[in-house]
C-alpha cells in the first residue's frame, strides 16, 4: 500500500486579503535561501511571523492561504476573526482565521497576511519541527525560483528575474487563485486505433509543491490513464489536513507541457471534492522538474529554467 501526503488545498470563500497584501523591499535584489526537503519532496523554508522566529514552514504552491499550527497561533496571541472552509483533495473543513501583521521569507516581507489555524497533526507526523504552511497568498506578491537540484529558493519583491532566466514561458491560468497550466495527452478512450493514434487532449493541471505524486481526478479525467482504475489497481492512502482517503493508482500516458514531456508517471486517482473549485483535471508536483521559475508579475512559469549566462555558454559551444 502506498501513502501519498497531499497538502494542496484551496479556500472556498476566496477572500479580498489578496488586495491588502503589501510587499516590502522595493529596489532590493533577489534574496536566495537554502531549503531542506521533508519526505524528499516537501520544501521547508525558514519563515518569520510578526517578528518572531524563524520557524520551519512548508512552501506550498497548491494552497491559496497560509496555515499555522494552533500552538503557534496561541503563542502569537492571535484572535480568530471568523472561520474559513478549506477544500483539499480528500475533503473540506472549517478552520479559525486571522491575519498576521507580517510574514517574512529572508528579506521578502508581506503584511496583513491571512492565516488559518490547525493542529497540523498530519504534518507533525512527517516532521515535528514544521510549524506552518506558506501559501500563495504570500508567494503571489513575488517572483520566485525553486531549485530542487541546489536546494535553494530565490525570491524577489520588485523586479523581473526573467532578465536572468532563459527558457520556454508557459502561461499560467490563475482561475480560483491556483497555478494552472495546460498539457496535452494522448487519449486512451475507446476509439478505433486509427483515430486514437492521432487523438490528443488538452488538460489543465495545478502546479503543486505540496504533493508527492501526480493526482488525476476521476472519473472526468480518467481517460489520461493507461488503464482504468479497477479492482486489481494498486491501492494507496492520500492524507491531507482534512483527513485521509483511499486511492487507486495508475500510470498516465505521456504529458506534453510545452517542450517538456512527462511519461510513465504513477498517479493517485481521486474524485473531486468540489467541482466548482476544482476546475483542473489533476495536480502535478513541482518536484517533477529540476527547478521551476514562477513569474507572478507577467503570469507565466518556466520549467527547468537556465540562467542567462549559462544559456549563452551552451549556445557558444554549439556554434
Question: What is the structure about, briefly put?
Answer:
The protein has 319 residues and is mostly beta strands. Helices cover 11% and strands 48% of the residues. The chain is globular.
Describe this structure as you would to a colleague.
A ten-stranded mixed β-sheet has the order 1-20-21-24-19-25-18-17-22-23, with no helix packed on it. It has helices at about 15-20, 70-75, 120-125, 135-140, 195, 310-319, and strands spanning about 1-5, 10, 20-25, 30-35, 35-40, 40-50, 50-60, 65-70, 80-90, 90-105, 110-120, 130-135, 145, 150-155, 165, 170, 180-185, 200-210, 215-220, 235-240, 245-250, 255, 260, 265-270, 280-285, 290-295, 300-305, 305. The chain folds into two domains: about 1-160, Cathepsin D, subunit A, domain 1 (Beta Barrel); about 170-305, Acid Proteases (Cathepsin D, subunit A, domain 1, Beta Barrel). Strand 9 and strand 10 form a beta hairpin. It is mainly beta and about 325 residues long. Helices cover about 10% and strands about 50% of the residues. It contains six helices and 28 strands.
What descriptive keywords fit this protein?
Cathepsin D, subunit A, domain 1, disordered C terminus, six-stranded mixed barrel, ten-stranded mixed β-sheet, globular, single chain, 28 strands, 319 residues
Strand order of the main beta sheet, please? 1-20-21-24-19-25-18-17-22-23
Q: Strand share of the residues? A: over 45%
CATH homology superfamily name of the largest domain: Acid Proteases
| Corresponding CATH architecture of the largest domain | Beta Barrel
CATH class division of the largest domain: Mainly Beta
